[in-house]
Specification:
28% of the residues lie in helices and 34% in strands. By secondary structure, the chain is an alpha/beta fold. Strand 1 and strand 2 form a beta hairpin.
Length: 119
Amino acid sequence: MRELIQKTGRIAALALASTLVIGGSAVVLARAETAMPPTADVKIDNFSFGPVMLTVAPGTKVTWTNRDDIPHTVVADDKTFKSKTLDTDETFSYTFDKPGTYPYFCSIHPHMTGQVIVK
């Protein structure tokens, strides 16, 4: 009888350990699901992008915010991304998934240029 109780106790302990491992995995998965991608910001102010050149890691979400009283756009030279016309305080975001160099400009004011480098 004592041997049976010891075996039952071991089985119960293994079941509890499995439950804890499964519970631990669930916690890790929950953290992975809530992890936020890296972000970076570019301000549009006084007819310029700032910073003019931005280096980010793959997967970074870049957000441009128009701080001018004049409408602007954000358009990639190769048309990879293109914003609508942004009024004051409006934003446009794009996530850069692949390494590379992404020059862009304002289609309303083509002298306004910037560059995102992903590496």
